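== Fold encoding ==
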Amino acid sequence: MTNLVKKTKLVTLAALLAFGAASQASAATITFGGQVATDGSGVTSSRIDASNQITAATVSNGYFVETFDAATAYPIGAGGDTQYNIAGSSTGCQVNSPLGITPSALGVVGVRNDSVPNVAAAPAGDSTCYAYTTPETIGTDSFVDIDYTTFLANIGDIDASLAGSSIDYLGFYWGSVDTYNSFQFFSGDTMVAEITGPELLAEFNGTSGNQTSPASNTYVNIDFSFAESFDNFRVVSSGIAGEFDNIVVGLTQRVPAPGSLAFLGLGLLGLGLGRKFKK
């Protein structure tokens, strides 16, 4: 498992990608690499604690993780959603509230903690719960939308200083990448970024569907600009299957914590320069 992360970190891509209509392009920075997750889930974001636990520290820093495990449920909402669990294969699994899950059809999304040939394979080194999407008909695109709108609307219930925040970072562990998988990222109805299986495999010289190689099981980090933000993403697959875990979001536009107020004067001093950069 250590080798997996080391190899992933050695090849890091920082690409500004343009999306949308030719007359209106936007950009997001995509990089690869994470850290070994100590909860047995393979690889997670290097921006949170390796345990994947939602602690007071991660909350105050504006980071939240979805592991699809009941043990890391969000501290708000009405409890976990187990409707996508698979009988006999999803002990301790759930979609943690308040994420919105919308599949394109019944049966195209599941949450489980095992691997079954021709159904789904856990990302490399992941012995915990993970999510996957698979098409209703092989060769035809199916998808699952994961929406953070409700999460953002209620974030102030976790920490009042987070009220009004938006998401400027998303990370996820992409397992056994296939040429027929892609991830699309949206701000409202506008797609602001996309990464496809062929793109990732080409970057690492990976083999489609390999369940163990670090070239085909990679942690993906996406940083969105202030203008783009981000509130939902779509996992698309036309084959078996699109697997993912350890989704981490990071919030921006946060009210400074009391300990940060000492730096407020310096921040105001550089406001004029910051405006120039924003333009």
